[in-house]
Design brief:
Elements lengths: L5 H10 L1 H14 L5 E4 L5 H6 L3 E4 L2 H9 L3 E4 L12 E7 L8 H11 E11 L5 H11 L13 H10 L2 E9 L22 E8 L1
Parallel strand pairs: 1-2, 1-4, 2-3, 4-5
Antiparallel strand pairs: 5-7, 6-7
Helix pairs in contact: 1-2
Length: 205
């Protein structure tokens, strides 16, 4: 799907500029340690903004776009990352868990390749937020991307991250406005209630 529709996927960030800028602002605030690996790097939109050194993705066409954006890339899947143990200080998963076959295994692999004391940052659209409910409804109507996604609550991701060997230390969110409201610029907030985009930071024990 992503290999065929990568251009449509990438265009979303430019059609929804204010939302995308809010999300980038949040992800940047969560990245404090390098080197950074992004799992599910896609076209490299976020990676280019946060200075990720390398990204991995199964889609060769998406990786081609990420490469053009200056990201070093590797083809692979999150369930079996092609990297050695303890290789990165930060591992990013930006709206990745909802599209993988086994989110727990992806988190376990992300923890494996993170250095001790390093961060694994998972960013999601919470299923129980107004944005999550909107996307679930669109999925039921056959949306080309959302119909392939499985959305999770923040509590569910907390549980998976902790079972993967991570200590949850922080969660921040943006998109406090509703899907039907006009978007406006936001700063990341520690108040994540009903936020449409939430990033959770876990530290490898």
């Amino acid at each position: 799907m992503f290999d065929k529709l990568w251009e449509l996927y990438d265009e979303w960030y430019y059609r929804h500029k204010t939302i995308a800028e809010n999300e980038v602002r949040l992800v940047k605030s969560m990245v404090t340690k390098h080197p950074v690996l992004e799992v599910g790097v896609g076209t490299g939109f976020f990676a280019q903004h946060v200075g990720a050194e390398i990204g991995v993705d199964p889609s060769i066409n998406m990786l081609g776009k990420a490469l053009k954006r200056g990201i070093e890339v590797a083809q692979g899947v999150g369930e079996k990352l092609p990297f050695r143990d303890n290789s990165f200080m930060t591992v990013l998963l930006i709206v990745t868990l909802c599209f993988v076959d086994d989110p727990y295994l992806v988190l376990a692999e992300s923890t494996r390749v993170a250095k001790r004391g390093g961060d694994v940052v998972a960013c999601i659209v919470p299923r129980d937020s107004s944005w999550g409910r909107k996307y679930v409804e669109e999925a039921k109507r056959g949306h080309v991307f959302y119909s392939r996604a499985r959305f999770y609550t923040v509590a569910e991701v907390y549980d998976m991250m902790e079972k993967a060997g991570l200590k949850i230390v922080e969660a921040r969110g943006v998109l406090g406005f509703k899907p039907w409201e006009r978007p406006y610029p936001e700063e990341p907030s520690n108040d994540i209630v009903d936020k449409g985009f939430v990033c959770i930071r876990g530290v490898k024990k």
